[in-house]
């Protein structure tokens, strides 16, 4: 009996958006209007690439970025929740599927000593170039019309489950914890026995309730959370059963 926990990262594990937080490193802690207005829907990774070039051009180095990123607060109750999951790893496999990037997530998890809680992290690959600029790439290519160009979270979850099945691992239940519009696609893939946990007041919760109003509700159960202690209460019930 094993459960799979799938976490989004921004506004779920941490209480901010790591990509917008990095702007604190910019001169005057803001971006020029031209750059800020250059974002096109579905092309966030390319936009962040331009932000990282701007930061690099202004002499922002890795150590300054790292210092800034590790000041992001975790969501209320999240530190206790991740500690609880870490103590019960024989019952929980735990992955992150995020539109952030490998460098930011790595820094934040390692600084808080939560790296070992997660079995895998699926996010946009990032590295520092020889000249010290952070570069980020799309996670994969996909054919899903609903998702941003760089990442379809449903595809990630499905491929992870297929790979686990090949290794003889299947899950009693999938618990999907997220907040954003790009979390809807994987939630719609979940089955009747699974559970979606959207963060209260965020886009994912609104989209799920809109589907219910349109009489095409998601198949899985839905449990809204506002603090990670709500998630922990649910997981404690799960393992009692």
From TrEMBL:
Record keywords, A-Z: Hydrolase, Magnesium, Metal-binding
Gene3D superfamilies, per database record: HAD superfamily/HAD-like
Pfam families to which the protein is assigned, alphabetical: Put_Phosphatase
Keyword Transmembrane among UniProt keywords: no
Top-level taxon in the UniProt lineage: Eukaryota
Protein name as it appears in the record: PHOP2 phosphatase
Binding site for substrate: 19, 99
Record GO terms (molecular function): metal ion binding; phosphatase activity
Active site: 8 (nucleophile), 10 (proton donor)
Residues that bind Mg(2+): 8, 10, 179
TM annotation in the entry: none
Required cofactor(s): Mg(2+)
Cytoplasm listed as a keyword: no
Family note: Belongs to the HAD-like hydrolase superfamily. PHOSPHO family.
Organism the protein comes from: Furnarius figulus
